[in-house]
Amino acid sequence: MSAESLPLDRRLRQEILFARERVYRFGQPTPLERLILPGPEPAPEIWVKREDCASVKSYKWRGACNFMASLAPEQTACGVVTASAGNHAQGVALVAQALGIRARVYMPRSTPRVKQQAVRHHGGEWVEIILSGDSYDEAVTAARADEASTGSLYVQAYDDLKVMAGQGTLADEVVLSGHGPFDAALLQIGGGGMAAGVSTWLKTYWPNIEIIGVEGNGQNSMQVALEQGHPVALDRVDIFCDGTAVRKAGELPFEICRDTIDRMELVTNAEVSHAIRVLWETLRCISEPSGAMGLAAVIKNRAALAGKRVLIVLSGANIDFRQLGLIAQTDGDTHTRTLRVRIPEQAGSMLALIDRCFAGLNINDFQYGKLNAEEAWPIFTISADKPEVLQCLPAVLDAAGYQWQDLTNAIDVTFRAIPLRGDLLQSPAFLRLDFYERTGALHDFLSQLVRDHASICYFNYRQTGERIGRALLGLDFNSATQRDHFLSTIPEQGEGYRSCKRIDQDALERLIGR
């Protein structure tokens, strides 16, 4: 019986065995590391396959190496061409340089520079990067057009038997590690190549293992394919987890996954961001968003998985450094609520609100600009470790007699659009305040230095995770004499704060429109 006549799953197992000989010419096995979830609640025993430790910082080298190493010289005479959001391209580049094969890589114009630079690093003069389109699908279309016009061979990112088999070698390393058997494996899915190869190999040795496919909200192409009975193109794809942002699941991966995946799990961007934080705080590694999706699903199902031995794959660490700020803001660990509260426009009213209603809570964000001579509506984003604390906050405000509005996820708050009417100010002063980031520090500053001197007319502060909190603070005085006396007597450093400096006149005039 020829190999081509075998069922697809048997052919895939056979190809994984062949891949053992090919892929390790280009890279080394990656470690399997234990992760202990923080917190007192029961948790599963988690083992992390550290594909971020590979030379290209993702598992994608395995499939590209297995495919390209199996090609005959006549197949690569015109070079190869591929499309990639970044990680697959690095695998192709690695092999292209090692084997002396010319490669053209089409990448979306929005591809992070860190991934472009990595492709150039691994491919050298053998690789040409062509930025085309605004999405992965548009890059694929351009690469396919190149294939048709030049006769170059197209290197699939996931929809190929040898590519899937190459990815399956990471499961082979898990089996040989001695840390199994595992009760469950949570595998992130983009096109499905890794999930197909890994699930096939794990089920071969541990038939009772539960395979859970993990996709992000807004990019659930495999879930839709399994529901519809065939791959279906999504109308729109969320790209926060860019490594798995695939509009349509691969045909071959779907054929495998419909038999090996026991159930699907969707995770939010906030849950993924929190998982990235947990990986940093436990293993001191930084994952790209798609790399943390498996852990996000574990944390989401912590109680149900408690006591089980589970496997996750940290599939990559190719992340633009600038994205870390967004991830920190999106972290779904602490529960937050954004509220707009009405207070009288008079000295001490802001501090009274904090004393009466926000005592002991963490103020993550504080936005306010004076717009009315009689009343103020400052905006606070409050966080708490337990959701019930925030659920009770409206009742606390009601009991204290405050009017309030819930502005959680409001677009103007997200983009920090803080209006201010300069014509309502009498003798303003704006200060750059750096205070020690601890519970009560901001309250202490306001209590000591502001209560008896002025009213707050502007506040712009957002928690960044540093030991020092930084805020732009506007104070309005009844007279220039009061203002000048305050500015001449306030120490630049004091109890609870590191620095308090007046901003220059040009910046003041831009703020208040004078």
UniProtKB/TrEMBL annotation:
Gene3D superfamilies, per database record = 3.40.50.1100, Biosynthetic Threonine Deaminase, Domain 3 (3.40.1020.10)
**Cofactor(s) the record lists:** pyridoxal 5'-phosphate
Molecular function terms, GO-annotated: L-serine ammonia-lyase activity; threonine deaminase activity
Establish whether keyword Amino-acid biosynthesis is in the entry.
yes
Domain ACT-like positions? 337-409, 429-504
One BP term from GO: L-threonine catabolic process
> Does the record's keyword annotation contain Isomerase?
no
UniProt KW keywords: Amino-acid biosynthesis, Branched-chain amino acid biosynthesis, Isoleucine biosynthesis, Lyase, Pyridoxal phosphate
Q: Which reaction does it catalyse?
A: L-threonine = 2-oxobutanoate + NH4(+)
- The EC number of this protein is 4.3.1.19
Pfam families the record matches? PALP (PF00291), Thr_dehydrat_C (PF00585)
Pathway entry: Amino-acid biosynthesis; L-isoleucine biosynthesis; 2-oxobutanoate from L-threonine: step 1/1
Superkingdom is Bacteria
Q: Name the family.
A: Belongs to the serine/threonine dehydratase family.
Record's protein name: threonine ammonia-lyase
